[in-house]
User: Which sequence fits this backbone?
């Protein structure tokens, strides 16, 4: 028995020491980066309190402020770094304190237009269609002055398409087939079933870099280190992360020495969990697919129970995961189901839940583009800070910040086919995918009997309030699919007097 206790204590000590070593290494790398010139080195714990606005540089705003529409979404539309800089008030006005912009590297027009930034032709060159180096530095400096952190999208899996899949001469540095895997397209059934093919075959005719070649590996590691230092950015979003072996990402993220979040689209919890061992975070595609099922396909909201259980089982800290509803690769929810009330509920489950929220540009204006490229609409045509959804997003982000949602554990209180209720601290959120009325008396809640609570989404702060009842608890009525967020307005008088008597 004493031997068992000794072994158990030893295992516990080793586990604690292992965690301490990992934390020390993280601090050491960050400190080293600061000393070497990377000023903005924020930990993943610090990123938890950020709210990220994702935009495509080419589609957000033009330098000269012109608002004419773009008629060819498969080519450049004219958005620039100066355009972003000139409209930071629009972004900050909603409460966003981080932006994720397109890859900045030079893109090839040799075969297709790289308006999106994912067709790299020169890793050390700049995509001048977005602006000059001075413009980019000016944007980053102004963001930092406003306490807005900047995240670059980066691609280390592939380069721009090449003629006949054989002519690599337009690709700087990697200008020979010897740097790439042999041409062989990834099959849809490979994802989640054949990882070797996912990592070694080509995605959508894009030449697939072979990171096992020492020159390729060394060049990419040196490049990301250079990029972060040169532009003093705060984080990187890693494109096509599942298409490259994890051991490479481990070195890549250490070389970057800033916050990293990866794109892994396979909706398997154990598969996704493997990547948070080599990077700080991943985008929560599991939640994204659940939101689409619930709000566009009328799936039961009870599937969220299994989702949150799986997330907490597989991920040490769910608050680090990137939560999102729409992005530049997925059809917007409003294209699947044109119901604003459902869209609002889905947005709340993006912004006010466990994780770092990422909101795709145009969501605040109700954009409803379908498949790529129609989900990549120019924002400048509808940049209205008084629109219904702009004001709604602003309210929800304000609630997230005012209650410091990232400091509290989310508690699921009630699941039903058409209703989901949960709390974060002393804030209660009620959501539905029903277009008719929902009524429930909730006895399991975070309040005290007699507390006055109000719906923070109501037009008037006191127009939708109720007193917590001794027998019925919190009586929730949702009409026509509307969401509600109840916050404490006033403590019950008996609670106030009790505290005074005990003080």
Assistant:
């Amino acid at each position: 028995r004493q031997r068992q206790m000794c072994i158990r204590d030893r295992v516990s000590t080793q586990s604690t020491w292992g965690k301490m070593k990992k934390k020390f290494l993280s601090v050491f790398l960050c400190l080293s980066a600061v000393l070497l010139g990377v000023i903005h080195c924020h930990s993943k714990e610090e990123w938890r309190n950020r709210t990220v606005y994702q935009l495509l540089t080419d589609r957000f705003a033009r330098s000269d402020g012109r608002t004419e529409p773009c008629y060819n979404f498969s080519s450049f539309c004219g958005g620039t770094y100066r355009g972003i800089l000139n409209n930071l008030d629009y972004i900050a006005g909603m409460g966003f304190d981080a932006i994720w912009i397109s890859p900045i590297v030079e893109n090839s027009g040799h075969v297709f237009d790289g308006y999106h930034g994912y067709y790299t032709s020169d890793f050390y060159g700049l995509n001048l269609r977005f602006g000059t180096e001075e413009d980019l530095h000016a944007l980053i400096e102004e963001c930092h002055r406003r306490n807005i952190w900047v995240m670059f999208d980066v691609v280390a899996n592939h380069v721009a398409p090449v003629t006949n899949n054989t002519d690599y001469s337009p690709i700087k540095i990697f200008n020979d087939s010897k740097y790439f895997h042999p041409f062989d397209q990834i099959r849809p059934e490979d994802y989640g079933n054949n990882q070797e093919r996912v990592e070694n075959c080509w995605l959508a005719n894009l030449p697939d870099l072979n990171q096992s070649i020492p020159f390729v590996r060394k060049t990419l590691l040196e490049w990301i280190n250079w990029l972060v230092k040169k532009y003093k950015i705060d984080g990187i979003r890693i494109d096509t992360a599942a298409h490259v072996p994890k051991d490479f990402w481990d070195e890549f993220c250490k070389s970057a020495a800033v916050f990293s979040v990866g794109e892994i689209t396979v909706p398997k919890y154990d598969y996704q969990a493997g990547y948070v061992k080599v990077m700080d975070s991943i985008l929560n595609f599991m939640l994204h697919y659940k939101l689409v099922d619930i709000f566009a396909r009328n799936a039961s909201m009870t599937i969220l129970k299994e989702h949150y259980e799986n997330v907490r089982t597989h991920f040490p800290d769910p608050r680090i995961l990137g939560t999102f509803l729409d992005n530049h690769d997925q059809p917007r929810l409003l294209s699947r189901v044109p119901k604003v009330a459902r869209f609002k509920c889905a947005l709340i489950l993006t912004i006010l839940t466990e994780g770092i929220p990422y909101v795709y540009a145009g969501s605040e204006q109700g954009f409803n583009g379908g498949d790529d490229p129609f989900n990549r609409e120019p924002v400048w045509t509808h940049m209205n800070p008084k629109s219904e959804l702009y004001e709604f997003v602003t309210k929800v982000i304000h609630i997230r910040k005012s209650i410091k949602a990232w400091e509290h554990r989310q508690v699921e209180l009630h699941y039903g086919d058409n209703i989901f209720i949960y709390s974060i601290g002393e804030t209660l959120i009620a959501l539905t995918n029903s277009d008719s009325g929902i009524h429930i008396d909730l006895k399991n809640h975070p309040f005290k009997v007699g507390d006055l609570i109000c719906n923070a989404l109501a037009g008037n702060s006191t127009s939708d309030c109720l007193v917590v009842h001794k027998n019925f608890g919190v009586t929730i009525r949702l009409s026509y699919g509307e969401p509600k967020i109840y916050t404490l307005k006033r403590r019950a008088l008996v609670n106030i007097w009790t505290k005074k008597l005990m003080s």
Q: What stands out?
A: Residues 2-35 form the longest helix (34 residues). The CA atoms of residues 426 and 454 lie 12 Å apart.
